[in-house]
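Troubleshooting log. The previous structure file for this entry was overwritten by mistake, so regenerating from the original sequence record. Sequence copied from the archived sheet and checked twice against the printout by T.R.
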Amino acid sequence: MSRVHGPWFALPVGLFLAAFFAAPIVIVAWYSLMPPRTFELSGALTTANYRAAFGEGYERPLMWSALGAALTTLVCALLAWPTATILHRSAGRWAGVVTALIALPIFISESVRLFGMSLFLMPGGGILAGTLNALFEVRVGSILNSRLGALVGLVYIHFPFMLFPLLLGVAMVPADRIEAARDLGAGRLAVFREVELPLAAPGLSIGCLLTFVLALGANAEAAILGGRAVTVITAAIEQRFNYAQDWPMGAALTVLVIAVTAAVVFPVLARVPLDRIIRR
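Regenerated output below.
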């Protein structure tokens, strides 16, 4: 019965994805092939917008966005692994409280959190600089309005999206396998490399995908904490669509971002056992 009715049950989801996911991508891709500064889906198809994208220096914002997303993913993974391990091993009342505290900022506006972080990082009168100066008489330079400041904001915003899938991945590692590896003489590094990391890889992969994709399309972190030190591709897309009124160029830049995202997401998803994660 399930094989007969399965396609019918999937039809509403398929129609929804076709109307609200595939169709907008097709329209954007079509717009990207229109002549510059065209507002209608008509006219001779051209690749002039893609040539102009690389000829006018838009590859630099794309590079900064991809590099920032990769660094954010790496830093979040390094911070989330020990956090997820501790939360899993100390599961109980306090683990739930800590998890709730980590998840709580997600329900607060991203802009509000970033402006709060800017007050924390502000030079002179900022909380970080003032605390270090008062306690240790150490004066630190400001990382606000810098690439480092934008990276701090990216890690701060996207850390939960790495932690919670990784916490699920760590929970998929049976404790008896770790004990068996230790009984056989494996050291801490060997247990991590041969047992924990391979078994937790599905959760880690999902966390990396979520973090990378969200960080690739982030704009507020660079605008609020990075200042003019770095220009990301999403800011360039917004500028082409809104201020320059050049929709075909904005669509071409959007297609490039989609292509980078697909080049990262599809190979990883092909190796992730989603059915195992869903059953978990």
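The chain has a mean pLDDT of 85. Archived copy saved in two places this time.
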